[in-house]
Amino acid sequence: MPRQADIARVAGVSQATVSVVLGGNRTGVRLSESTRLRVLEAAERLGYVPDPVAQRLAAARNNLFGVYTFTPAFPVDASDAYYPILAGVEAEAATLGKDLIMFTASSAAPDRIRRTRLADGCLFLGRHVPADAIGELLASGFPIVYIGRRTELGGRIPHVGADYVTASAEVVTRLARAGHHRIRYVREPDDAPSSGDRERGVRTAAAAAGMALKVIRTDGADLDASVVRGWLADGVTALVVEETDTGAVFQATWRALAAAGVTVPRDLSLAVLGRPPGAVEGPVISGFEVPRRALGRAAVRLLASMVEPGEGEPLAHRLLPCPAVAEETIGPVP
């Protein structure tokens, strides 16, 4: 393979001149047109091909975006909550001509997260933020984007999330329009921002409609037929259930309803704040779509705007709307 030194010898110039010409003379060095053409002709005659790795190092970029998740492994099941997000990430990266590095370690240790510097910037997924490690990356100016709204570190973390507050409030408003006044909101005990946003939307809409609302925090282990019968005895006519990546609470609620012999929505209306995980036999569960694929694509675009800034400042915090799902499990009060 010919080198720049070979081009310099054939063209009768210094190697520094060859480097300037082949690099596009970004520094504005004064060169005669005849010298520039002589270098280019020599390079073409020798069949010189620039080293892409050297070019990227010179530009201080690798055209690589990292993806770091704190789950044990990347999903391969299309029903997994993370699958459409990662599909969106891959699709948008391909559109922008970027390659991806998948960081497979689930550790939140700072020394593991520092490895993301192999890329030009990194996307993060996970219900909780390792504040020390992420704060260190932010302080260094390394471009990062979280997929999911984040409130940690004083709200300084760039993110693309779903507007769970508005979508959750609309679900409860649909129940109010159907005549429901006494509802239960069943959610996991975890206090991730997405869970807090959903509960805030539920409480806001319930208060506006004058509903009697009670929030149940559970991991699903204590949900059985007797609990459901107790709700019915208390006059509860509708359940609203949180969707999470595990789906534990929704699945436990669905099993408890079946064990109690409850038919939805004839005996009890049911809504999920998102989409129920996996296949559920029966009617389409009312709720909303989480735009996961769109989240992945928008996060890549935001990261690209931070790595290669153009005109103006990129919008560092963005929430996408969640389209409503058919009301097959929201019915009138029995």
TrEMBL record:
PROSITE patterns: HTH_LACI_2. One of its GO terms (molecular function) is DNA binding. InterPro entries: HTH_LacI, LacI/GalR-like_sensor, Lambda_DNA-bd_dom_sf, Peripla_BP_I. It holds the Pfam family LacI. Residues 2-59 form the HTH lacI-type domain. Keywords: DNA-binding, Repressor, Transcription, Transcription regulation. This is LacI family DNA-binding transcriptional regulator. The keyword DNA-binding applies.
